[in-house]
Amino acid sequence: MMSLVIVSGSQRPHSESARVAEYITRAAVMFEHTRHIELCQMDLPFWDGSQQSRANHPHWNEISDALNNADAIALVTPEWGGMASPLMKNFLLMCEQHTLAHKPLFLSAVVSGVSGTYPIAELKMNALKNLKSVVVPDHLIVRNVNDLLHHSEQVSERDQSLRTRIDYYLHMLKHYTDAMVPLRERISREPHPQQQQFIYGM
């Protein structure tokens, strides 16, 4: 059973990011199991670099188990001041290094205006260095999000185009997921003899 975990990173409840994440969750019918984790509902501590930040948190084991069992991950972040949300970046700092390693990662940015490029660039550039996730080539930017992806029988041409694009992206994500399961299994069976010396990315 292939599992997809979608993580939305807005710090506001009832956010547009969470709504887009819920749409992706419903659309990902090619995965046997999907789960949306809305970070603002989890009350995560501010990461201070210590294991206690994880160990003492009531929800972290639940989140960690979901990520460990996931075969693919999708991140949905709002754009705040041209950046990914602080909550999303804090979440990525809290992730154990093995949790997301060698798993396909699909990035999405949500913005009420017409920007949205910078959070994707930021996450690709520096937020994932040590987690060793494999970011898939396609990413999603939902601009003017207030007007899109609502429950409605009547949708605009632009809205339908976005929905079709999401379907394509999820289809491709499933192919990457299928291809990378045996890769992770092989890495686990045949680790490099000095693997622990190279746990950090460059």
Quick overview:
One of its GO terms (molecular function) is oxidoreductase activity. With 202 residues, the chain is α/β, with parallel strands linked by helices.
Tell me what the structure shows.
The protein is α/β, with parallel strands linked by helices and 202 residues long. The protein has a single domain (3-198), classed as Rossmann fold (3-Layer(aba) Sandwich). It is built from 6 helices and 7 strands, in the order E-H-E-H-H-E-E-H-E-H-E-E-H. The protein has helices at 16-27, 52-55, 60-69, 86-94, 117-127, 157-189, and strands at residues 3-8, 33-38, 72-80, 83-84, 104-110, 134-135, 140-142. Strands 1, 2, 3, 4, 5, 6 and 7 form a 7-stranded mixed beta sheet that branches. The longest helix is centred in the C-terminal third of the chain and has 33 residues, at 157-189. The model has no long low-confidence stretch (mean pLDDT 94). It comes from Echinimonas agarilytica. InterPro entries: Flavoprotein-like_sf, FMN_Rdtase-like_dom, NAD(P)H-dep_reductase. Keywords: Flavoprotein, FMN.
